[in-house]
Design a protein that fits this description.
This protein is α/β, with parallel strands linked by helices. The chain is built from 15 helices and 17 strands. The strands form 3 sheets. Strands 4-3-2-5-1-6-7-8 form an 8-stranded mixed sheet, sandwiched between helices. Helix 3 crosses helix 10 and helix 11 packs parallel to helix 12. Keywords: ATP-binding, Ligase, Magnesium, Metal-binding, Nucleotide-binding.
């Protein structure tokens, strides 16, 4: 891969932001979202308050000085916007630490949309079946510790700090070897992946659920040979880095099927594939056939049979690869989450059972009841209802439009939109205009933020110009949206905040949901 096509990750908090409106240059009150540390991908801040000796979750304070020290060390590395397309550096660190990437069986999940939700669902189902699960996802909404969980809970800051300090000498050794060879040191994401593997080995866990950061073939999570390799829907995103079309993108993601451990703990992985566009499906079938692997496909081997709207979620009947499961309550909204849960169930059936026996229906139902997905069609408050969703590309925006139409009975919707400059505003606005009557555009606290005036100009092509409003920051945008929702005194107006996970993170912080999981 050439230098100009190297993959990048999502987002970074603006290191130059200091409570000043960058467009107008007018001083402002210090923002509660102003970052403590620079280059924080898709996160709003680390709070600078709390004890140096946090208590166990959920009472532990967040943002201790020790976490700030460790996070600063990680952020000093090459950021997520400059990921190195390689596996050997991560593998070297893991091997020096005792092959921690092979300390437990793994489930690896790649795709474009739905990866994090599906990973959380797999975690919930495996936990319900009595397994101790380690989960690694990205990006985080508020705290870097969110990315690593054990037993279904974000790891304690003290554990994060301790494990980092224990592996720091090995990270430094690998850094030295790379620099001696004229190569870049371990990146932020590579070091964090090693840290996650070390946490899981230390716990220890029975299974690791790994969300690919980007692509698959060269993503650092791919140093682990997964027993189950899952593909959520693949779309056109990160095209500069993954390729110009669905076929090329799918081929890169199919790299998680490669075996990178010798001898491999899972020489014959099973692929579990969600519904795909024809071009992506054809490429995945080809990649699976070349490797002579077993696969399970949505619509063929498993499916959502029935779906009924319910209070605070939906009631599902799912045909899995091993059996039929009825009356499953899923406390999440949208057809896409039903499809995600069906894929998660298929993953767990294939992971837990070597034969044809179905899983226990009661245990499956218990796992489903514990599923959640912060920042994805999440209701933050009522009167007026405020819904947040991290839709950042046309495909995810289309899913959001379908969810709003199906799950909510709004008589009117005010959208709050903030995006990154490297995304497709018209592709997102096409679908936002399907459910929103008015839109308030703003900017996130990120150096990658799309200028609000540029976003407003794009919005004016999809909305009546009088229905496009511009605010300087998320706080003022939310206040304006609430005023609009309440202006006629009648109930039934919803507020939908979307455009990126950082957009959602800022809204969650301002609306008081920052520490809830």
């Amino acid at each position: 891969m050439s230098e100009d096509t190297r993959p990048t990750g999502d987002g970074a908090v603006d290191p130059d932001y200091s409570g000043t409106d960058r467009a107008a240059g007018a001083p402002a009150e210090p923002s509660p979202l102003a970052p403590l540390l620079p280059d924080d991908p898709d996160a709003a801040e680390i709070a600078d308050a709390g004890s140096e000796e946090p208590e166990p979750l959920p009472a532990a304070p967040r943002g201790t000085p020790e976490l700030a020290r460790v996070y600063a060390a990680l952020l000093a590395r090459q950021g997520e916007t400059k990921i190195e397309p390689r596996l050997d550096a991560t593998r070297r660190a893991c091997e020096l630490l005792g092959d921690i990437h092979a300390s437990a069986p793994a489930v690896t999940i790649t795709g474009t949309n739905g990866k994090t939700s599906t990973a959380r669902m797999v975690d919930a189902l495996l936990t319900a079946h009595g397994l101790r699960v380690g989960r690694f996802t990205s990006p985080h909404l508020h705290r870097v510790t969110e990315r690593i969980s054990v037993d279904g809970a974000e790891i304690d800051e003290a554990v994060f700090v301790r494990i980092h300090d224990e592996i720091a000498p090995v990270l430094a050794m690998v850094d030295g070897e790379l620099e001696a060879a004229g190569r870049a040191r371990l990146t932020f994401f590579e070091a964090l992946t090693v840290l996650a593997f070390a946490v899981f080995a230390d716990a220890p866990v029975d299974v690791m659920v790994l969300e690919v950061g980007m692509g698959g073939e060269w993503d650092s999570t791919n140093v682990a040979d997964a027993q189950i390799c899952a593909f959520t829907p693949i779309g056109l995103d990160h095209m500069v880095h993954l390729g110009p079309d669905l076929s090329t993108i799918a081929a890169t993601k199919a790299g998680i099927l490669d075996r990178n451990v010798q001898p491999s703990p899972a020489p014959h992985p099973v692929a579990v594939i969600a519904e795909q566009e024809p071009e992506a499906a054809a490429e995945l079938r080809s990649q699976i056939a070349v490797r002579n692997l077993t696969s399970a496909w949505a619509g063929e081997d498993y499916a959502v049979v029935e779906r009924t709207k319910a209070v605070d979620g939906q009631l599902l009947t799912i045909r899995g690869v091993r059996g039929l499961y009825s009356d499953l309550f899923l406390p999440l909204h949208g057809a896409h989450q039903a499809r995600n849960s069906a894929q998660a169930l298929a993953i767990c059936e294939l992971f837990l059972s070597d034969g044809e026996q179905a899983l226990d229906a009661g245990t499956v139902a218990e796992g489903f009841s514990q599923m959640d997905s912060p920042g994805r069609a999440e209701i933050l408050r009522s009167e007026p209802t405020v819904l947040v969703d991290g839709a950042h590309n046309p495909a995810s925006a289309a899913v959001l439009a379908e969810t709003v139409a199906e799950a909510f009975d709004f008589r009117e919707v005010v959208a709050v939109l903030a995006m990154f400059a490297d995304k497709d505003p018209h592709g997102v606005l096409e679908h936002v205009s399907r459910f929103a009557d008015r839109v308030v555009v703003t900017e996130t606290l990120s150096e990658r933020a799309l200028d609000r005036q540029e976003l407003a100009a794009a919005a004016a092509e999809w909305f009546d110009p009088d229905d496009v409003l511009v605010e300087a920051d998320m706080n003022s945008a939310l206040m304006r949206a609430v005023d609009l929702a309440l202006e006629d005194g009648e109930p039934g107006v919803g507020i939908v905040v979307t455009g990126s996970l950082l957009t959602v993170a800022e809204a969650r912080t301002l609306l008081g949901r920052k520490d809830e999981q």
